[in-house]
Amino acid sequence: MAKAKSSFVCQSCGAVSNRWQGKCTSCNEWNSIVEESGAGISSGAPKGLTKGKGRSVELISLDTPPAPHERYKSTIAELDRALGGGFVPGSAILIGGDPGIGKSTLLLQAVGQLAKNGVECVYFSGEESAAQIQMRAVRLDLVGVPLKVATETSVRDILTTLDSEKPPSVVVIDSIQTMYADSVDSAPGTVAQVRTAGHELISYAKRKGVVVILVGHVTKDGQIAGPRVLEHMVDTVLYFEGDRGHQFRILRAVKNRFGGTDEIGVFEMTGQGLMEVSNPSELFLSDRETNEIGSVVFAGIEGSRPVLGEIQALVARSQAANPRRAVVGWDSGRLAMVLAVLDARCGLGLAGCDVYLNIAGGLKVSEPAADLAVAAALISSLYQTKISEHSVVFGEISLSGDVRSVTQIDQRLKEAQKLGFDEAIMPDQKKVSIQNIRPRRIKHLQELVDMFAPLD
């Protein structure tokens, strides 16, 4: 009998090595490598594949029109926006997020609305009992909804149950880390188990044209636990983000084969579940104190919608050899670049200061258009000068100190005007077509420094 092979797999990134080691060379994680037996793989396996060993597959020409598929609308507009317009039949969707962030609540609301609209849905839970799901359904006002619920962790039993009757339209697996495939000799949650369970469920989705939604837990680094390969196997990856100190949550698409990857959905956590936020700018600015030193309103773009958020900065003189830099919600490398430009091109001398930067409300900003707003907040805190409460700021900063143009200016200004702002500190570019907004055009960062510097 051929001897089964074994390999050593990192439980953090899925890297495979031929021997055990304390530190993974791929992700630099310590004590994450576990030995896994290669069930079903033997040294006597055939070396090559020849014709006659498999089945002939059907080849389809691109001239053939694709079969029309209507997306399933959940009637939760923010979720449908993040998905690109709704659930596509035959797709596999992975939703990740911190424990308790609201993944199960959102999915139960979504499939409950689909079931109300006549879509056949099945919810498999490996973490909660059916009674717990029913209690949540009562809180979410989903009593009497024709949604089928089961508690099971065996992938074989789940697929047998689904094949024993008419295939449903939507299947939810909560969560993929609790699923167990008996063809793999390892514990649930390991790389081999998650990969095998995910492959079987995704294959079922493609074979039957069913929407399969997988829930994945995240690690302390914010990545979906277990294998990174699971993200490559599915069609859509959504991350559910949020700060436990705030009531709102952000659903962000990081991969989507049927839509854009720059869309977000904004929700507010309430006692009756997750409520949609139609105007996220108003929500992010609801707790803002006017005329605060170091506080700037940034007019940004998230996907196809404009979003206004508050950027807060604190600059304090430090006697330490290495001043502290703390960033929440923005790229720390981008902050280092802005500080270097302010020092080299404007002579502000921020190298000897502790710098703290925060995007209020738990919002995460990644676009370069936030450079000018960050610089304005830093200058305001350094000079202890207040910025007008009726101003929004946006623009990209180059290494030479020039302020570069950004895209979708009209959308940014329309959102600012809708919330009562009447002034925009922005790059010097094309004519602004928005009425009742006074643009203050800036070509170089030094102009912004002169604008807020003390008169003495």
Query: Helical stretch count?
Result: 11
What is the number of E strands? Answer: 21
According to CATH, the fold-level topology of the largest domain is Rossmann fold
Output mean pLDDT.
Answer: 86
Question: Going across the major beta sheet, what is the strand order?
Answer: 6-5-7-8-4-9-10-11-12
Strand content: 25-35%
Topology readout:
Layout: E1 4-10, E2 16-17, E3 33-42, H1 77-83, E4 92-97, H2 103-116, E5 121-125, H3 130-139, E6 148-151, H4 155-163, E7 170-174, H5 191-208, E8 211-217, H6 229-233, E9 236-242, E10 248-256, E11 264-270, E12 273-276, H7 280-284, E13 295-302, E14 305-317, E15 325-328, H8 332-346, E16 353-359, H9 371-383, E17 391-393, E18 396-397, E19 403-404, H10 409-418, E20 423-427, E21 438-442, H11 445-452
Parallel strand pairs: 4-8, 4-9, 5-6, 5-7, 7-8, 13-17, 15-16, 17-20, 20-21
Antiparallel strand pairs: 1-2, 1-3, 9-10, 10-11, 11-12, 13-14, 14-16, 18-19
Helix pairs in contact: 9-11
